[in-house]
Amino acid sequence: MTTPLVFIAAYLFGIATGWFLWGAASPRRPAAGNGAAPAAATSDSPTPAAKLTAAAAALEALAGELKAARALLERSDEDDQSVADELAGLDAAIKRANGRLKLVMRALEGSEDEG
Predict the structure, then answer these.
(1) How far is C-alpha 18 from the chain's CA centre?
(2) pTM
(3) Under a CB-based contact definition with an 8 Å cutoff, are residues 22 and 29 in contact?
(4) What pLDDT score was predicted for residue 68?
(5) Which residues of 77-100 are buried (b: 16+ CB within 10 A; e: fewer)?
(6) Distance between CA 7 and CA 101 in Å, rounded?
(7) Could you give the CA distance from residue 40 to residue 48 in angstroms, rounded to a whole number?
(8) Residue 96: its pLDDT value, please?
(9) Phi, psi of 30 (to 5 degrees)
C-alpha cells in the first residue's frame, strides 16, 4: 500500500530531474541575461554526422538493455512458476498431515471414551 508521501516524493524527484536535465544554466540553453552565446553559435558544435553516430550508439545500448530486461523478466517468470509449484506441493502435504492428525485425534478420543 502506497502512501501519499510516496507520490509526493516521486513528484519532487521528477521536478528535480527535469531541473537537472533542462535547468536554467545548462549548456544547451544558457540562463537568460548571463551574456553567454547559445551553444549552436559556438564552433565546437558537433556535426550532424557525429550527432547521428551518437544517437545510433545510444539506440544500440538501449536495445541491449531491453534484451537484458526481457531475459530477466522471463527468468523471473520461470522462478515464480517453480516457487508456485513448490508452494502447491507444500500445501498438499500440510493438508494430508492435517487429515492424518484429525484421524489420530479421533482415535485418541475414542480410546479415552472406552477407558
Answers:
(1) 21
(2) 0.35
(3) yes
(4) 84
(5) eeeeeeeeeeeeeeeeeeeeeeee
(6) 49
(7) 12
(8) 92
(9) -65, 160
Taking only the tens of pLDDT, the chain with its 115 residues reads 567 777 888 888 888 877 777 765 555 555 555 555 555 555 577 788 888 888 888 888 888 888 888 888 778 777 778 888 888 899 999 999 999 999 988 888 887 776 6
Residue indicated by cell numbers 534484451: 67
Q: Which residue has the cell 513528484?
A: 11
Alpha-carbon distances of 46 from 24, 49, 75, rounded to whole Å: 22, 8, 42
CB of 28 within 8 A of CB of 39?
yes
Counts for the chain of helices (H) and strands (E), in that order:
2, 0
Question: In the chain, where are the structural domains located?
Answer: 1-33
- Is 30 buried (19+), middle (13-18) or exposed (0-12) by CB count in 10 A? middle
Tell me the DSSP string of 3-52. Answer: -HHHHHHHHHHHHHHHHHHH-TT-SSSPPTTS-PPPGGGSTTPPPHHHHH
